[in-house]
Specification:
- Helix content is 74%, strand content 0%.
- It is built from four helices and no strands.
- The longest helix is centred in the last third of the chain and has 25 residues.
């Protein structure tokens, strides 16, 4: 589980507001899920996408989500929606 802990540490170093959420969510994972997640992080690292990249990506996703939530709150509509879609 060292890869998971390294990722959590890096994320919370850059974004301390995530500390309690990540600690709580980690405790809710099963051992199988922890092993799968750790193996996925290990795979990413071996493919050139290290802990720094994963941490930056996570934090960028959070920023993008927040930006879209604020847009929706201000405009009462989603910014990116396909108006003409088929059912």
């Amino acid at each position: 589980m060292q890869h998971i802990q390294s990722l959590i540490n890096k994320i919370t170093d850059n974004n301390p507001l995530q500390t309690s959420f990540l600690k709580k969510i980690f405790t809710l994972l099963t051992e199988e899920e922890k092993n799968e997640f750790d193996n996925y992080i290990k795979y990413c690292c071996s493919s050139g996408k290290g802990i720094d990249f994963l941490s930056q990506s996570y934090n960028q996703l959070l920023k993008d989500i927040l930006k879209e939530q604020l847009y929706f709150k201000r405009n009462n509509k989603y910014r990116y929606i396909i108006a003409n879609f088929q059912k």
